[in-house]
Model the fold of this input.
Amino acid sequence: MASAYTGLVGACLGLRAVNAGEPAGTGTPSIVRPFADVEWTQLNPARGAASPQAGALWGERAGPGPAGFLLKPVDGFRSPPHIHGVAYRGVVISGLLHNDDPDAANMWMGVSSYWTQPAGEVHVTAAKGGDCLAYIEVDDLFDVQPASAAFDSGERALNVERDNIVWLDASSVRWVRQSAALSPSDGVRVAFLWGDPQGATPYGVLLQVPGGVRCETVGSAASFRSVVIDGALVQQRVGGPHARLEPGSYFYASKGAEHQFWCEDAEGCTVYLRADGPLELWARPR
Done:
């Protein structure tokens, strides 16, 4: 797999603590799952203690339909060659991860790096560092099968190391409106990862929020799910309490719900966002 071009985007979310695995119902305006409340299980129970840990965020990883979860391997982990029956996407939250063909040299990906793994393709996953963590997203049941079950799905893998991500400032993204008090260099930036933000089907983006910048969603026509990738983010549903969220935390907002969030980290914050339709995001100094 080779490094390649990629893109971006962003938004904010709501507030309600839930149990791991609880789906976001159509009547639920917002859900928040701080990283400290994530429940962990073995990703591949067949490997016992050698398996990485999986932390449920939304959906059912072992059931039909889309889902998102955290992957937590130990330092030095390296999987045997294997395949999955479904494609997946990943974003590195901490540590270094490698995902490639079994014979490929290690290409360590750092925080905010993005990769895709096609269904049926033989690969290995490895981790380096004492606190490795990544967000994994699938569109259907996630399984682990031996390399002997390999097949060609027609898709091709993608590895985008963080330094190769292409970011756009707010002036280049029609659904981001930014206060004149913020210049392009000190405002939000977005990077498109997958899907079509102009359509009605799901898509995924990364959003960079500088310290001291407040973002608001105003009656967005889409629901969205978000995972904090880097930095300390404070999130609040308009009129409700606020929550300080560290990397690995998750939040969900239903269509039309108004939310705001801001970054309390001087180095800025990065958020992954999955939306199912058009969004409208306002950015202004806090």
In short: The chain has no helices and 22 strands. The radius of gyration is 18 Å.
